[in-house]
Amino acid sequence: MGDVSADCVTLDVLREARETVRGSPLGVVQTPLVPWSQTSLPPPPVPCSVHIKLENMQKTGSFKIRGVANQFARRPKGGHFVTMSAGNYGKAFAYASKHYGSKGKVVMPETAPLSRSTLIQSFGVEVERVPTSRLMDVVNHCVQNDHMIFLHSYDDLDLIAGHASLGLEVLEAVPEPDVVVVCCGGGGLLAGVAAAIRLSGFCRTRIYGVEPEGACTMYQSFLEERPVGMEAKSIASGLAPPSAGTLPYQLCRRHVDQIVLVSDEEIKTAVSALYRSGLVVEPSGAAAFAAIIAGDKIPEMAGKSVVCILSGGNMGKDELANFPD
Ligand SMILES: Cc1ncc(COP(=O)(O)O)c(C=O)c1O
Fold first, then answer.
1. Which of 265, 266, 216 is nearest to 243 (CA)?
2. Which atom of ligand 1 is nearest to the CA of 239?
3. CATH number of the domain that 43 lies in?
């Protein structure tokens, strides 16, 4: 990350990114924010007013396109880009590469589903599948020997500023939320949304990040007061990168109240509850909702105005079979 620090993330930077995302030729959607009461979900565990932000309906099926739109707009046109992702970032990166006609390469773990490689290749992007332990070596080789430009999937100022557009949209619809609940993997989304809310002047809004118990790098980073890594494992693979991002960690320390943990069982229950109400949300995308329906994870929700982000919906019929009815 070089010398980029949390001080570089100002409201002006976020507002500019928001305009870039809004005007992006990638067609980023201003996703609906629906009141829970207008869905067929069973009532929340405590009486409160919850709004649900439907990023599962976003272009490419997740919020990642927001950050990607801002990254591509601020990198050299016609560059040759490389990234490391088996998930939603890779899909958004490939979509943008095709749109901009830029050359792209995605390095992914050889354990990722083959269907994911096929999808990314269908956008004209090269895929190299390597053992997980070699991912970074291969990326470094691409940068040093083939002069490619590395785009990080969560630890990048432009990406985080693009994700912040989601937070600014929330504030337009729910002007002063009491509680905002956001899932956390490397922390790019949480950092962007939290910065958008705090830098807009909402100091009393409580902001919670949600991680899986088996992939709690940001939770552990808060305890150790530095970004840490771990052998992360969860059904929510998008929330299980090997470490918390450095810039996300700094921003989350500054702007996030608390990281709470959910089990894989709680995530599965959330995916099923959402599906029964007609919402297809992947495990990573359902973690914030899982924390809310668990009842005792998010403190003092009663009577409050709560916002829950559903961050992605990329899940096939085959995967759905793993969830309880
Ligand atoms: C659906 C979904 N939600 C959340 C995340 C976590 O995002 P971040 O790494 O920015 O915390 C991801 C990451 O891939 C994702 O795919």
1. 216
2. 6
3. 3.40.50.1100
